[in-house]
Amino acid sequence: MKQEEEICSKCGTILRYSKNSYIVESEKKEKPSKRFRRYKFWVTPLNILFLCLFIAGIDMAIVPLDAPFSSHWAFWPIVGIITIFLLALILSKRPESFWVIAPLIFANIAMLLYFIDISYGENDGAFGLDWALIPILSLLIFGFAIPVVSRFGYIKETPEDKFKKMVGEE
Amino acid sequence: MSLVHNHKKFTFGRKLLSLLEGYYSTYLWARDHVAPQEGSSIIDALKVAGYVKTISAIIDNMRSSPRRTKVKKACRSFELEGSDTGILFTHGFGANPEIFRNLAEYLHEETGYTCRVLRLEGHGTSVQDMERTTFLDWYKSVELHYKELSSKTNEIILLGHSMGSTLSLLFSVYNPCKAVITISPPLDLPRPDAKFLPLITWFKRYWPTKESEAVKYRKRGHYIYPKRPLKCVTSMFDLMSVTRKRLHKVTAPLYTSVGLKDPRVPSNNIELLLSSVSSSIKRADYFTQSTHSIHLGPEKDEIKRNILTFIRKL
CB neighbours of A31 closer than 8 A, spacing ≥ 6? Predict the structure, then answer.
């Protein structure tokens, strides 16, 4: 059988084809893929840096600061933006970690609400709280307790079970 | 409307403008939808556009790395048309059909059988595409090609290398075949760290391919992934576990081989295989000079001849 040998001009791979060899038809079809425009890895951190500088600039421009590296209010949005970015980064790289991160976020928000409530206004309700009791309970029950319990109680299908189901084996 | 259109001659200018084009189109959108209030200036609208761009970048970066599903030209499944007996070749983990090119052509020439070399799902495309696959998808690939081949042929011989041979063994349990030929079949690898793989995947998604191995493959003209998804490695261990439990159900004539210099698959895998299967015809060859890919190594001619002899005796 005579063989033809050719080299791919793009990757340098040797492509050999004998005369009665043909590519299987299904291999020629490309699966459709729709996506947004991609960015280099430094685009988002840099954009966030600019955004933070912009916020800090506004903070400084409105009322001049007493000392360098201090702020009136810009600290909070900057820390918030960076936290959201880091969380988004972790979740994008490790989507499985969502069930760990999300309950922690809700628990933290509940804690934040607790401190805000006891710091301001009247504190004559349960646990020394005023208005935050219901949001805190909602966050802890729906955002923390239920997801954690559900996650630990989830019966995960083993690869063996999946295979049995696929081949119809009892 | 494109800003690039009128500036084709200046490369730097074009690049700069193409960078700005995104901002400009966002600005146009922002001007019409976000900041149409009376008295709003262009500067205000640009500020909004900057935020929109940043948010879109954050959303976009939340997606995992691009998953290319297009099969590389040198990694496509192929078939050598022949008689009504077929041989279905299954390649190993992270490899592609081209590693069987020589063997398939040799067997086709000598026997005249129809030889189909399949590509497993997620192989020959991108590491990200491979990452989403498990051994169930690989099994489905074998099933798909088996069905297509069985529509043209009366009987099929399954031939696999490495993980492909494990898949062939498992597939032969549920589907009729004339024989199973395995080259370096992994069934029980001595890797105590395999138990921790699901945990390791939390911290590390890919494991780089050894440079020496990559060079070896490139010299042969074969494409190989520069890194391997650890999720798939975990799935390969699952496949071995699933196959081990069903080895006693393998009844087809069996040919198996192992290289004694193979750092991945020790020869005790062959002993396990031979002692577990229920096949009436069993043959095992030990190659003293070969490593994992016996059919590409120094004893490739010997293994080709041995496989041919085994097929002819069936």
Answer: B69
pTM (two decimals): 0.69
The answer as to whether A143 is a domain residue is: yes
Question: Among B5-19, B92-106, B117-131, B266-280, where is mean pLDDT lowest?
Answer: B5-19
Q: Is B4 a domain residue?
A: no
Range of the domain at B196: 73-313
Taking contacts as CB-CB distances below 8 angstroms, the residues of chain B near A49 are none
Q: For the beta carbon of residue B85, count every other beta carbon within 10 angstroms.
A: 18
* Residues A114-139 as b or e (16 or more Cβ within 10 Å = b): beebeeeeeeeeeeebeebbeebeeb
Report the relative pairing of strands B282-287 and B254-259 from DSSP bridges. Answer: parallel
Same domain, A147 and A107: yes
Query: Which of A18, A26, A95 has the CB atom closest to B105's CB atom?
Result: A18
Shortest CA gap B305–chain A (Å) = 18
Task: Give residue A12's pLDDT.
Answer: 45
In a domain, A33, yes or no: no
Cross-chain Cβ contact A24/B136 below 8 Å: no
Q: Which of A8, A44, A46, A86 to mutate to test the interface with B (most CBs of B within 10 A)?
A: A44
- Of the given ranges (A82-91, A129-138, B16-25), which has the lowest mean pLDDT? B16-25
CA nearest B67 in A: which residue? A33
User: Could you give the ipTM of this predicted complex?
Assistant: 0.75
Q: Which domain holds residue A73?
A: 42-93
- Kindly identify which residue of chain B lies nearest to residue A15, measuring between CA atoms: B74
Identify whether A46 is part of a domain.
yes
Number of structural domains (chain B) is 2
pLDDT of residue B308 exceeding 50: yes
What is the CATH classification number for the domain harbouring B200?
3.40.50.1820
Cβ-Cβ contacts under 8 Å for B94 (sequence gap 6 or more): B123, B130, B209, B224, B225, B228
- Do residue B117 and residue B254 come from a single domain? yes
pLDDT, mean of residues B193-207: 80
Measured between beta carbons, which residues in chain B are less than 8 angstroms from residue A88? 58, 61-62
Are residues B142 and B197 both part of a single domain? yes
